[in-house]
Write the structure tokens for this entry.
Amino acid sequence: MRTALITHPLCRKHKMIADHPECPERLDAISDRILASGLDVAIEYKTAPKATVEDIARVHDQAHINRVFEALPESGLAELDGDTWLCPDSIKAIERAVGAGLLAVDEVLSGKLDAAFCSVRPPGHHANQHSSSGFCVFNNLAIAVAYAKQQGVERIAVLDIDVHHGNGTQDIVRDDPQVLFCSLFQYPFYPNTAIENTDSVLNSPLPAGSDGRDFRALVEQQWLPRLEVFAPQLIFISAGFDAHLEDDMGGLSFVEQDYIWFTEQVIALAKAQSCRGIISYLEGGYDLSSLGRSVECHIRALAEA
């Protein structure tokens, strides 16, 4: 599959308090691993464009957008919620994090790419229409989904594999018949949202200690049957890698081979459904070594399909 990594150096400019796990070094760990593994020669690199306020407003209400822009400090840090801060350059990173998904949609729908991985920060899946939370300022992926719908895509699947529930994305798409949102996550755990299942939402909670066997059973028994009926024309992945065994931000026990298997299942589904493509967006993943290895395996599975 023709696969690109979409990123921008300005995504490193967003910084929070000292020793915060959502740090610029996450992107370095990914790029270093891709180079060390030789995967760089098998993929394209694309530069994330700068998104506009109008792009962000595809999903977020103006009051929330105003709060974020007004909170940007001239120096130091400004707190958005208990674990999300802004620095003076945060907006530079945010604009590119949003823009990466817009470019991915354009490249896939135009037939230039089959898959794209957006290696950007800050992440987005905890941000809803009205608020930022959980390290997330705006919901990058949900904005790209709204943009893809505007381009005429009628059925979009969003597959969230972060250890934390994608509550912000769920809030945004829960009543949208054009979107099927599937989320696996450790439960009970942050953000402790109520588990609901609707025509547009399929939640799959996992107890602490669950491993790759549980992951595979969940996908095979719950997600794939629902996705086959839904027949998505475009697939998004909220690619959090903090469910990895080595990541102490959560209590699940996935390993690289599990992410490879999952990616292969998504590819097989996409091909069987004549899907336009796959767009994957970095969410969590805070142990730098396992993050780099997991992302490399994920992208390699896409590129070699």
Summary: The first strand starts at residue 3 and ends at 7. The chain has a mean pLDDT of 98.
